[in-house]
Amino acid sequence: MALSSSLSTKGFIWFKYIADAQSFTGGVSLLNGWWDRINESQEWQEDTFYALCAAYGLVCLIALVQLVRIQMRVPEYGWTTQKVFHLMNFVVNGCKVLDMILLDLPGLLFFSTYTLLVLFWAEIYHQARSLPTDKLRPTYFIINGIVYFLQ
């Protein structure tokens, strides 16, 4: 009897730790399931990528504004630690945004190439029919500008 009561007392302490570990494991499996759903979702990955790119762009812009403000206020000090810090923030975060632009650049250039071909044939058609061609090029630039902005 004394042996079983001492085991139950000792077991009681370990039960607490085992119960905590099981509840923790359940929480981890819940998080793993959530992460797996997000990891397999292309939409979530794209949205996260664009949100991070926007955040990096914002930090890049703020760093550039701060660098210009400091330089305009005290140009006589040269390159201080603060100015170098803002310059490096601008460059690093700007490179991350540039990475996104470079990933999209081949598709955008493909679009521009073939819209340029359409512009070429539209100019030939308009010249053959003696129609004005003055609005074709601005239309080309507007359409490409909208597509580049949206992309």
TrEMBL record:
Spell out the InterPro entries in the cross-references: THH1/TOM1/TOM3 (IPR040226), THH1/TOM1/TOM3_dom (IPR009457)
Q: How does it sit in the membrane?
A: Multi-pass membrane protein
Tell me yes or no: is Transmembrane among this UniProt entry's keywords: yes
What is the annotated signal peptide range for this record?
A: none
A cellular component term, taken from the record's GO annotations: vacuolar membrane
Principal place where this protein is found? membrane
Q: Which superkingdom, per the lineage?
A: Eukaryota
Any one Pfam family here would be THH1_TOM1-3_dom
What is this protein's name?
THH1/TOM1/TOM3 domain-containing protein
UniProt source species: Cynara cardunculus var. scolymus (Globe artichoke)
